[in-house]
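Help!! Second protein's tokens look totally different from the first
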Amino acid sequence: MKNYFFTFLFVAVAGIFSVNAQVTGKWKTIDDKTGDAKSIVEIYEQNGKIYGKVVEILNPARKNSKCDKCDGADKGKPIEGLIIIKGLKKDGDKYTDGDILDPQKGKLYSCTIKLDGKDKLDVRGYMGISMLGRTQVWHRVK
């Protein structure tokens, strides 16, 4: 009987920790127009908030691209290594109240992310209200 209890307890605790960690990791971004894979973004937690950094650009021709249209401190920085998701906070089963940068347009949008299963991430960028935006589906890199 004790073995069953400890097994159940272990599975329950492992499940809690895996749910909390699922949004973190590496994700492949997909171009809306072409359907081609664009980059790998690493999502991580820092000081209780979620951030995402471009760790690899997949198109060799764009490997050395810079954020020329960006404002402020990001202007002219290489896109590879750029933090594009900033300051998301957990809100139930999604993460909200942060921003996402589109380095090709140099625009900053409000952002919400939510897991769709364990290997898909819905990333929504919008201006003003969430209805006025678009959602991309990113795929977990294994």
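Here's the second one for comparison:
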Amino acid sequence: MPILQTCAHRIDKQGDEHPATLTSGEAMRDTATAESLLAAFNSSFHGKPKAWGHFVDGAAGETDDANGETVSSSRFAYELERYRSGEINFTDFTRETTESLTPLIDAHLSIGGHWWFVHSRQGEAETLTLTLLHQRDGYGFDGELGVIPVQQLNLGQLMLAARIDLTQWQRGESRQYITYVQDRGNKKLVEAFRQWLGCQEGVNAGAETRTLLKAFSDYVESEDLPEEASREKTDTLIDYANAQAKRGEPITLDELSELVDEQQPKAFYDYIRNQDYGLAAEIPPDKRTLQQFKRFAGRASGVSISFDSHLLGNSIEYDDERDRLIIKQVPGQLKDQIKQRKG
């Protein structure tokens, strides 16, 4: 991922009683080591719980997001517009936005860190990454093989981090081009950061992933597939979704449809559209939801049963004491066959 521009600024803060101070940096000329750091950051970033959204519309707009919280346009989005238009350079853009971030650090954190900004390109897509990187004490060896104390960047501790797909933003075709870390241990900090970004949550990744899995379960049932074929398609979906989550990329419905059925590459996509599940063409995968999804299956004495795990406890219950499986919502096709037999 070639780096076009990168710059870091340091915010020093010694405990809650001392105000944060800013030391400004300059755009780096040598980006070779920074590219390695960016790759390591991306690996950590992809593994964190995240939310997706977009900038509030309008230069001074104000609106309510999906959670009912009021979000106003921010100085950050304004300064980013100035940088993209060439009105200010990268150093000035990052310095001015970091200055506006200092009160946030003062209010929510007892320690500072380095605000790192990276403007990169991969293929035709341009991305802006920004993150607060903390340091931790470590050890190393000097030239004479003596043990010395060293400071290391703690990439595992990403409390504040965001990635903006600049290409999608400028095309205006997406409502989820901002991705930011959701540190569940510090919700007030995350909320303040989201407000600072001027980001309105565009999609609930967990809810969207659950809807996709529900649509897939309905599709498999409607196709009345053999158990082996059903299991293969389920594995294909989970493998693809997990791979996208690992890369930090969305699930693309038409691409998923081609993988699910190579003979009829549009079948699953058309099924979703015809049933109107309300899914966007691209869905941010939620790793926790994916981990909970699998199919239970078994066959004995002429009876073959399979169902998705998320149905257990809802439309399907298991009575452990009596060793009974209770199906509350019998499939229509099966119900018709039983009625015909009884009639």
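Reply: Different proteins will give different token patterns, so don't panic. The chain has a mean pLDDT of 84.
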